[in-house]
Amino acid sequence: MQKSGKSVMAWNVFKFxxxxxxxxxxxxxxxxxxxxxxxxxxxVANYGPALFHGGLDSFxxxxxxxxxxxxxxxxxxxxxxxxxxxxxGVPPNWRPSIDEESGDADPLVGLGYEGxxxxxxxxxxxxxxxxxxxxxxxxCNQFKPPRCHHCSVCGRCILKMDHHCVWVVNCVGALNYKxxxxxxxxxxxxxxxxxxxxxxxFIAFFTDGVINGTPGxxxxxxxxxxxxxxxxxxxxGFLVMHIxxxxxxxxxxxxxxxxxxxKWQYDLGRRKNFEQVFGVDKRxxxxxxxxxxxxxxxxxxxxxxxxxRPDLDELQQx
Length: 318
Description:
Layout: H1 2-50, H2 55-84, E1 136-137, E2 142-143, E3 149-151, E4 156-158, E5 163-165, E6 170-172, H3 177-205, H4 215-247, H5 252-259, H6 270-278, H7 292-297, H8 310-317
Antiparallel strand pairs: 1-2, 3-4, 5-6
């Protein structure tokens, strides 16, 4: 009876993961649809015509349109960079570096063992590895680098996995986490700009103010204001959460692990923690790309190696 229950649970999880994969294309269309409606309301129906009113109205319309298009370009660039960039997977033949003299795994491999024998002389009995520092994925049946987790939706292990996001139809991991954060950042700025630019029209709905346009345009303006206000408020909380995670050098998954381990070994200070996600080159901090210099001199950006706090390393040796 118990075995049957486990089978049903596994089947339900499989159906859920399959549904999330199928939802992907729908979410992309939804995102582009919201952007399209917003573009029509802001540019075509309101501030585009206002350019020809003259005086202060034309100047304000010009500023709004310049800011709107600039933020929209950065939002779309960040969004598709997140969608199209592989978050980072474990190569089929990847193995942790081993100290041949002592037989110990590289300390960067991490803690914990979750798998079966993969050829490093571990006992066949699960839970009794010869080297407890090795991490193995039971689903992929391969070694796991430090800070790597298995994604049931993608069906593979993801380097420095943060979470699987249905909005970007992709996992958020080591290679696209920066792009995801920039997507949140520019989405928050753009939705805030749209909310403020349409606020006077929204207030006019409930007062005696005069609103020009067809009934369809008025409905679209009302819906656009409500949607952008909702997104701005929700993304603000989400953005604040991820900023705190970046400054503490943790991911969403690791935030739960950190509760049981207050001395987080990867916390190198806010400056270095930030650079491990955004790179050292300041010119690339606000664009979804890395400079060639950063990619060459910062192995951490490739998702396999992560420096730890020297003071904690010394304590572990004692």
